[in-house]
Write the structure tokens for this entry.
Amino acid sequence: MGNIEKTRRYFKAWSDHDADAVLATFIEGGTYQDCMTGGPVAGDAMRGYCNVCWTAFPDLVFEIESIGEMGPNLVAVQWIGRGTFKGDLMGLPPTGKTVALHGADFVVHKDVKIQSVTGYFDSADWFRQAGVNVIVQPF
């Protein structure tokens, strides 16, 4: 199985809401990170992050807009994450708003599995679409 197919399997596991399948796509100690994780997460922390996302967005699915190999072990993916904010997220109450968030992931492969995924998306856009006011101020 090639790196693109392995990456598609990872996204399918997210859309299927199957944390075991998400984790199974990674090597031992493989990591995921985006602007909401506070740094790389692995294992049980990654499982927890998946479940937080699926609790907040019980209908969350990912549509791959484009996918390509950027090198022998690197796959770049542009995606749209779609879901309805129906559950608690970091203390924020659900608004019932539907979100269509555009983002990109860079997936590093090692041997037959994923070593790391680094995701990028506009968290301010997510909050706006979800119907949450964001106030930027100094700490």
Observations:
- The CA atoms of residues 7 and 107 lie 7 Å apart.
